[in-house]
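Progress report, Aim 2. The chain analyzed during this reporting quarter is listed below.
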Amino acid sequence: MTSADASGGTRWLLVAVLLGAGLIIGVAGAFVQAHRGVLDLPWAVVVVPWGFLLVWVTLLAAIRGGAWWIHSRWGGSAVAVGWLLATVLMSAESPSGDLALSGGGRQMTYLLGGVILASAAASLPVPRRNLPVS
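Predicted structure tokens for the chain:
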């Protein structure tokens, strides 16, 4: 049985799996997004924020892949919601006072840009599958 032939219950199970994938991307992204490279050029110092760019690309690929996997926008939305839940939880202060996502400019760019990209990717239509002509 393929995901295209999945019954209603199986489809919701796939949505739950995709929600879990979004949670994993969100937790990992909270720590990876802070990585950056510093290029010391003769005329300037350039900071390349490769961490959150990597997370964004992974998030977009997972959202579109989830939507295509179950042939519904629900798949992409599940990944986006999972990422958002994990990211919001990781930005909350723990009882010991630690934060995975602080309130700096780079972190706010990661959060706002991620929300914009995730909502745009999840709302794109899913291509129709080609059914064999009988």
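The radius of gyration is 18 Å. The chain has one domain: 11-123. These observations will guide the mutagenesis work planned for the next reporting period.
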